[in-house]
Amino acid sequence: MYKVEVIVTYKEGILNPEAKTINNALHSLDYKSIENVKSGKYFELTFPDDMDNSEVEKTTDEVCHKLLSNPVIEDYTFNINKEQE
Amino acid sequence: MKKVGVLVFPGSNCDYDAYYGVKKVLGQDAEFVWHKDKKLRYYDALVIPGGFSYGDYLRAGAIARFSPVMDSVVEYVEKGNPVIGICNGFQILVEMNLLPGALIPNDHLKFRCDDIHLKVINNESKFTTRFDKNEVIKMPIAHQSGNYYAEDDVIEELEQENRIVFKYCDRAGNITEDANPNGSIKNIAGILNKEGNVLGMMPHPERAMEPILQSTDGADIFKSLLEI
Questions:
Q1: What pLDDT was estimated at residue A85?
Q2: How far is the C-alpha of B104 from the C-alpha of B97, rounded, in Å?
Q3: Do A15 and B104 touch (CB under 8 A)?
Q4: Given an 8 Å threshold on Cβ–Cβ distance, is B109 in contact with A72?
């Protein structure tokens, strides 16, 4: 089984009020050493064993572009892991 | 009599307001269009209403664009027919790339439900012929992701092509930071596509069509659009 972990975050320069609020909350809890917080979305996709790695990569890239992220405001990264069942 | 189609998704909640406004206030014909319908009938205009289609999962408007009816909506737009997307309808239109840019969470993170003022920047669009240029109008907003964002070159293009239709302003018509309810770039509240037949706006004209609602300015958008 392939397990693909996708992370979607706002592009640099796009205001992320959620991350800013979390950052402020951490500071008010006295974790002053935290300089910056980024937040985003996490997805886990699974694919069957009999697929090629390149096919998995192509499909993941396609769905990231089409649905999981909005390319106007977000970037995405993903890791493909092949796991023993 | 003009006929308006109102799209209905799971989670739409302003569909009845638009239907009521067109039918009862304007005395025109209106019909609901279920998101699973594949074919559109003939309509003089189409409304993509507000609400929380598909629970706003993933991003507001992101899932609705893949509804079966949407291919027909794209075809309808390509033929030059008018579409107005209100609130969640605007979010759906940007997700579909029928309008440029994106609507991100409000800069203050809160859901804001309030009467606001808008300045009519473009009164030559088919949605705004009943207004004077720079007229100040009033209607409600109710959203959490209405913060309009687009890259600088897109904003420049919108300005050059006179595609910014409404901007948030104060009662006197000043476009100020204080009058901006959500952090939108340049106080943008509503924009047109290049061809001018698609309008997306965060404020709710369908909730401002009768005196009892404190404003009838919204009715003028529908009257402009339907030429009635």
A1: 62
A2: 15
A3: yes
A4: no
